[in-house]
Structure formats: structure tokens, C-alpha cells
Design brief:
The structure holds 2 protein chains of 2 kinds.
Chain A (H helix, E strand, L loop, with lengths): L2 H20 L3 H21 L3 H25 L7
Helix pairs in contact in A: 1-2, 2-3
Chain B lengths: L1 H6 L1 H19 L3 H23 L29 H31 L4 H15 L1
Helix pairs in contact in B: 2-3, 3-4
The chains are: A mainly alpha, B mainly alpha.
Chain lengths: 81, 133
């Protein structure tokens, strides 16, 4: 575990989380959530949890973003907060 | 004290991330935003569990050393603890199932009320209850 890399990725993760809940456009928020998941994936690899990393990359990032985008396509893209 | 705080920085970040998720679940009015907050919260829990298994300076994945004939003892202290990782694999798959069901419910809510804003849904329900009574 390289602590500088760990720290940098954690900072990026926090930035992505704050951006995802503050953006008004829901589609942008979901894409930023996907970026958040990919940074988490980098973090798992960096911490030695490779099995968690590839599960996160395939399941949590890809399928979750896909489901969110599908749901937003079926509903609405605008958000008031 | 300062050394204690710095050496456990992964856990501090986990707490910050969890609070961001909790804030989104409590304070945001849009239902999709609440769901995003729930996802962030779940990821924070997973970060906590994976952080438990990390040992400083040890990044080896447990594989058999000397598997081709030469035998020597394997010390568990030299490796990461893989047990939290395996538990969290299940948590990730369960989280995707939860998200899928929540999004299906969200689509049904939108079909009925034509909005995803919590305040507007409650107002419509209130108005319907008053006219119905």
C-alpha cells in the first residue's frame, strides 16, 4: 500500500461523491457516480483487494450506471436540488 | 494522538464518505439523489471492511509459495487478510440488486405522480386524500 497514491485516490473519491450529489442534472450525476466507482476500483487494487476491484469494475460500475441511465431515460432528467 | 489520527486516515475518509451519503439520503429532495447517496453509503461501508484487511507494507495476495515441490511454512502474518474482501464481494452484488429494485419502484412512482420530487409527491398525495375524504 503506497500511502501517497492511496491519499490522492481518496481525495478524488470525496470530490466525485460531493459532485455527484450536488449536480442538478441527474444524468451528469449518474455519470459522476460511475467515475466515483472507478476511483473506488483503483483504490481496491491499490489496497491489494483485487477480487473486490474487478467485481466493482464489472458489477457496481457498469451495470449500476446502465440501470441508472435506463431509469432516467424512462423518467426525467431534471432535478431541483 | 496525531500519529494515531494520521496512521488511520483510511478510516477518517470512510467516515467522511459515509456522512456525504447520509446527508444525500436525508437532505436531498429528489429520489434519484437519495439513491445515489445510498450507493455512496454502501461503498463507504465496503471501504471500511476492506481497510480492516490491509496490513502496512504487505501487499501480497495469498498464493502458495513453493507449490512445485519445495515445502516451507507459510506465515499468515505476511499476507493481507482476504476474509473481509470475500465478504464484501457479496455486499457489492447485493447492493446492485437493491439499486435495481429501487429504480424499478422509482419508475412506478414516476408513472403515477409524473414527478420524482418528494415534496410534490407528498403534496399530490395530500390533495388526493382531502378530495377523497
Amino acid at each position: 500500500m503506497i500511502w501517497q497514491l492511496d491519499f490522492l485516490i481518496l481525495i478524488f473519491v470525496i470530490i466525485c461523491a460531493v459532485a455527484a450529489i450536488n449536480i442538478r442534472d441527474l444524468l451528469s450525476a449518474v455519470i459522476i457516480l460511475g467515475a466515483f466507482s472507478f476511483f473506488m476500483c483503483l483504490l481496491w487494487t491499490e489496497m491489494g483487494a483485487i477480487d473486490v476491484a474487478f467485481t466493482e469494475a464489472s458489477v457496481a460500475t457498469a451495470i449500476s450506471t446502465l440501470l441508472f441511465v435506463g431509469a432516467i431515460y424512462k423518467t426525467t432528467r431534471r432535478s431541483k436540488d | 494522538m496525531l500519529e494515531f489520527i494520521i496512521s488511520k486516515y483510511n478510516f477518517w475518509f470512510y467516515v467522511i464518505l459515509m456522512m456525504i451519503g447520509l446527508y444525500a439520503m436525508l437532505a436531498k429532495r429528489n429520489l434519484v439523489k437519495k439513491l445515489i447517496g445510498m450507493n455512496i453509503f454502501q461503498t463507504a461501508i465496503i471501504l471500511f471492511y476492506v481497510s480492516i484487511g490491509v496490513k502496512a507494507g504487505k501487499v501480497h495476495v495469498p498464493i502458495i509459495i513453493g507449490g512445485h515441490g519445495t515445502h516451507h511454512a507459510i506465515k499468515a502474518a505476511d499476507y493481507l487478510n482476504p476474509l473481509p474482501h470475500v465478504l464484501m464481494l457479496t455486499a457489492i452484488v447485493v447492493s446492485i440488486a437493491t439499486t435495481g429494485v429501487a429504480l424499478a419502484v422509482l419508475i412506478l412512482i414516476y408513472r403515477r405522480y409524473k414527478t420524482l420530487n418528494e415534496d410534490e409527491i407528498l403534496a399530490i398525495r395530500q390533495a388526493g386524500r382531502e378530495t377523497g375524504a
